[in-house]
Amino acid sequence: MASAESSLLTTLGPNSDPGNSEVELDCWFDEEFKFILLPVSYAVVFVLGLVLNAPTLWLFLFHLRPWDATTTYMFHLALSDTLYVLSLPTLIYYYAARNHWPFGTELCKFIRFLFYWNLYCSVLFLTCISVHRYLGICHPLRAIRWGRPRLAGLLCLAVWLVVASCLVPNLFFVTTSSRGDTILCHDTTRPEEFDHYVHFSSIIMGLLFGIPCVVTLVCYGLMARRLYRPLPGSAQSSSRLRSLRTIAVVLTVFAVCFVPFHITRTIYYMARLLEADCQVLNIVNVVYKVTRPLASANSCLDPVLYLLTGDKYRRQFWKLCSGGTPQPPRAASSLALVSLPEGSSYR
């Protein structure tokens, strides 16, 4: 490959891609870490994500029917994660080959599109689960009306279509370009369109991440307040503590996977757009690249949520892992982020 590709010093400038740190005359820095960090982290996500999500889809399809609303959301979340991890081998090759993309422009567009499609579908499916459990805990009568599996299925279909529609411009922004013998697959767009891409990306982040994030936080805050309040009769303290721990785990996973990536990406884009000091660009670039694998890690962490929050799923999963044959449940799945005792009249 070209000597510029093998150099430890890469730069940022008006004639380079803002999403793939390349050359500028007065801002040199080392980005060699990316060619180790991203292939290794994406390889780990691919293996763990496939191992965890493939049997999850199989259990949902054949051993956890009939579905309730929460199981419907979980299935679509697992489907989104599986589609994403199947796209990772191309990115693993790309970064291991030091930013060389031999697969064509169309596949470059699709892989970049798939990353954000999975990311924002995951955010919205978790938001749907949060609202559903909020209704079940705080407004149980409304939950009977709005928590039907058919309605949940229609809402999941709407999530897929809405997110895809919002991300269509990304297919036009993302492109490839040549640098010597190296073909780059840009994560953002060509330099002359970068300011427009930043505006588009900011709107998408507000609509598909900012608003759902606020809704999720409000739902879990109200649920936690309700669970801390004394309940008559059947609600046991152990069940209350399990539910509160589950809320804490979900919020922690949400914060680890989604929040750092969006914050650092926004700072990175703004620093590039405003032509910040070279030292600032160095720091922001490193932090942003480090948080990128965290956004992919939700594909591995979502199955952990299924294990923590669904007794029937957990029993079927461990039976599958031990070599047994999972048995179809005789009643609707009770998979839920917040669970109350089986015989609870409140439920």
TrEMBL record:
Question: What superkingdom heads the lineage?
Answer: Eukaryota
Q: Which UniProt keywords apply?
A: Cell membrane, Disulfide bond, G-protein coupled receptor, Membrane, Receptor, Transducer, Transmembrane, Transmembrane helix
Cellular component, GO annotation: plasma membrane
Q: Please report the stretch or stretches of sequence annotated as the G-protein coupled receptors family 1 profile domain.
A: 52-306
Q: Where is this region: Disordered?
A: 1-20
Topological type in the membrane: Multi-pass membrane protein
One GO MF term attached to the UniProt entry: G protein-coupled purinergic nucleotide receptor activity
Q: Name one GO biological process term.
A: transepithelial chloride transport
Segments passing through the bilayer: 40-61, 73-95, 115-135, 151-172, 197-223, 244-263
In which compartments does the protein localize? Cell membrane
Q: Per the record, where are the segments of Polar residues compositional bias?
A: 1-19
Gene3D superfamilies named in the record:
Rhodopsin 7-helix transmembrane proteins
Q: Which InterPro entries match?
A: GPCR_Rhodpsn, GPCR_Rhodpsn_7TM, P2Y4
Query: What family is this?
Result: Belongs to the G-protein coupled receptor 1 family.
Q: What is this protein called?
A: P2Y purinoceptor 4
This protein's encoding gene:
P2RY4
